[in-house]
Sequence to fold (275 residues):
Amino acid sequence: MIIDAHVHLSTYTGKGNFLEGCLDVLLGEMKQNGIDYAIVIPDNIEDDPKIAHLENTLELIKKTNKLFALGSPQIIQRGSSEVDKYRRLLKGGAIKGLKLFSGHDPYYPNDDRCLSYYELLQELDYPVVIHTGDHSSNPNITDPLKYNDPKYIVEIAKKYPKLKVIITHYYWPKIEYCYEVTKDVPNIYFEIAGLADDEVIKASGGIEKIKEVLKKTIKDRYNKVIFGTDWPLCDFDGKSGFAYHIELVKSLGLSPDIEKMIFSQNAISVYNIKR
Fold:
C-alpha cells in the first residue's frame, strides 16, 4: 500500500481544465502509479478558481473513498477565530489534521495566532503540517525561509510535547540544517513532498545529498518519515511526480518493513486513518 500524504487539487499545471477534471486526473495517475490513498491539502488562497480551498476540497472528495483532507486555517485573514470550526471538522472526521502555510503567508509557526490550533490538535491527537522551504506563492514574500525556519518549529514541538508536528519539504535547500536542528525532538515528523523535484534537488546539493539526509533521518526515526509528493507539481521529463518520489524511497536501500512504514504505515498512525 502507498499513501501520498501531500497532494493538491489545482489546474495550474494543466492537470485538467477545471477542479472536477483535476480530480479525475489525480485519481487516474494514482491508479497508474500504485498510489492507494492520498491526503488532499486545501490551499490557503480562497478566491482562486484554479486551486481547491477547504470547502470545495471537502465537496470534491465525497466522490471517492481514496482521498482524505486536511484543514487550512487562514491565519492572516482570521487569526485564531476558526478554532471551533476546525474542532467540529476534526471531531466529525471530515479532516485529518491541519496545514499551516508559514512562508506562503507572512507569519511564523510560533505566531500567537497559531497557538489555539496547536492546543486543539494536541487535545484531539491530530497532526499539524507546517510548510517549509524556499517557495512562496505570495509575490510579496522574497525570503520564505525567514518565516518557516525549523528553529521555530522546534520551539512549538517543545511547547506542545504531545503534538504531532510534521515538517514538509524539509526546509529545502537547507536540508542538512533541518536535520541537525530537529534530530533530538521526538514529536517532530518529516514528510518528503517535493524532495524528488528537479529544482529542489539542484538547489539542495544534488540527489545524493537528499538521499544522505533521508537515510540519516530514517535511521534515527524510521517511524516518523512520511511519503508525500506535492502532486500535481514535480513532473519533469514526461514522468509523474508520483513516480519520482516512489523511486526516491526505493533508492534508499531500506528493508521491506521500513519501506512499508514510509509508504503507508506511518501515515496511517500519524493521521489516525481507518479504512
Remarks:
- The chain has a mean pLDDT of 96.
